[in-house]
Amino acid sequence: MIRIENVSKQFGEIKALNDVSCVVAPGEVLVIVGPSGSGKSTLLRTINGLETISSGRIVVDGVEVGAKATDMNKLRTSIGMVFQHFNLFSHKTALENIVMCQTVSLKRNRAEATAIGRDLLARVGIPDKADSYPSQLSGGQQQRVAIARSLAMHPKVMLFDEATSALDPETVSGVLQLMQELATEGMTMVVVTHEMGFAREAADRVIFMDQGEIQEEANPQVFFDAPKNERTIKFLSQIL
């Protein structure tokens, strides 16, 4: 589903990514962990072209990201992304946020988009918030709207960039549960997170990044119970 081949990304003198390669299979949940500044979010953002790469190649569902022949707007409709900060339109209701992305990007008619939007608000557990504006919603509710908005595009891949880090601790578990349900249903997911419980429970594979490189990757049991890389061991000892 996703193939990342020898990808590097330079910001001036800073090498955010250094020759990174990995593959995400259809239906796989890949969780990326690591310290701040390790390149996790940068790698995630290169998958849908929000960051252009300096070298290497990324292919999503057979389409090369950033290639001259690639329609990036079309490709992005198949790649859902949920950010740390919810990025909702403040002047539109929860339902309108979900409807607009469909009518603009997918050219769905408004009636169909509205029906899908209402179904998804029910799916994420807030059907009664359709007419509420973002300022009237809690952080967890706003993030549920953001997830519903991404799901409305019927994506083949979902990317989550620290989706719970801006939330109140009391609302984190609800969003994580929703993400875990998506994983159980077979959604291909790449998740950057500090939530080690989610990584242990939902991931098929965990990658540890540091200094722009993949230092270790393994299934969750091996990663958490028997890490091999000294940097991984130190990182886990500080957060677990």
From TrEMBL:
Pfam families: ABC_tran. Keywords: ATP-binding, Nucleotide-binding, Transport. Residues 2-236 form the ABC transporter domain. GO terms for molecular function: ABC-type amino acid transporter activity; ATP binding; ATP hydrolysis activity. Belongs to the ABC transporter superfamily. This is Amino acid ABC transporter ATP-binding protein. It comes from Pikeienuella piscinae. The lineage of its organism: Bacteria, Pseudomonadati, Pseudomonadota, Alphaproteobacteria, Rhodobacterales.
